[in-house]
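yo, O-antigen ligase family protein is done. seq:
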Amino acid sequence: MAEQGEHPVISGRPESGWVNRLSHVILFGMMLYAVIGIPEFDRKSAVAMATDHVSPLNRFIWLTLLALALPVMKEKWRSIMGLFKASWPLMGLFLYFTCSTQWALDPAVSLRRVMFAWVEIVLAATVVCGLKGSVAILRAVAFSCVVAAFADLLVWIVMPGYAMTDEGLAGLQLQKNQTGIIMLYGLLAVGALLPFVKRRVWRWAGAGSLVLLFVLLLASRSKTCLGIVLCVPGLVWLIGQLGRRRFSVGLAFVATVCALSGVGSFVYLVWCMAMNADPLAPFRDMTFTSRTDLWAFMFDEISARPWLGAGFSSFWSIDPAVQPSLKTSMWFGSEAHINEAHNGYLDLLATGGLIGFLWGVGVLAWAVALGCRAFVRSAKVQGRGVGVLALPSALFHLAFLLSLCIHNFTESNLFSNNALLAVALYYSIFSLENWRRNLPARASAPWAGARLEVDNTSTIQAEEEPAPERHQEPRRFLPVPRSL
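structure:
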């Protein structure tokens, strides 16, 4: 539980209005820049610089946001330090990443990238502590992604040859996968927020935004993002259903799924043995758009540095003299410049070693567990009070974390310097941990009397209903006999 005076909901201390307003400015600035970035209309020359953060304008924007957040840091210093302490798994992971710059293949690039990661972490924690409610983050995400969608649509109309590449719609982004990520992120945010908006004009605007985001996702031809959009709602629904049952029911469900998978695999192997067929024959021709060659190369490089890795972000887009991908004759695909392994877990293993990989996967599992707990708790309550996260925010954080876990099997953006997904991951972790650390210590349900309301301006508010007063009859004492 947070200390008294640290959280306004618990302590009763009113939140400073300027802190909330300045936090909103920083939040929208971060999200808009993370989503849109600096447009580069010379895509061939910009691809090699995509992950280097060497642009002076990029440095200026992030450092300006950090300077803008200094008054909020001063006002909310104790709360920010408490949030860092509570989020010790994430902090410890990035301390390890910082130490890895000492043995990195390119120490200068690795140090520069980890410093920018720390800037994003500090800004995310500051904004989470400065905002009054968690729904503000969801609104900022939805607004930023819709703005990016309109910008991509405009570029597609005005400059169709530049926006539409051979692989799919890229719009203002460097490649179509980045456009697919933005559309996926926007669909999750708008989809989580829309059911809780009552005003008709905003509901129609949200529905139109969903259609636009989905159409652009189809145009990007990002099969991974499209698959995630189709399967994640079902996973979230399943988690919600299991959360309403006893723990033994959920455990029995998981055991049943594992048993059925094992029985199915055994039956398949028996059939292959009876038919004298190769069990791996259906999978031998699967290349995942030439990713398997790249993954084979990654396994060779991981075996060369198994424990500590190549250092944080010190494998791709570094000094050509030491970059491992330039020392091989293997062919990786149609693109001349490869700046990721197209598998976030392999990239994490290559840069952080086995230590960083296990720690990073543990942090991800911890975040998903927090998301499940917050969603189940909020779904039961349908509200937000002390110890209850707003249902739209809990829904979005869980959907985003599940999407991130799935997405990194074919793309690489796990604890990387990808501004959009890095900022989104930090916001989700800090929001969930800020909710957890402010849970009341009492064992009774803290959500009693909480109610979620959506007003006519589509803003989500929570208020605490006072407990009904009990009318007690005055005690009547019988006269005591004098003999007693």
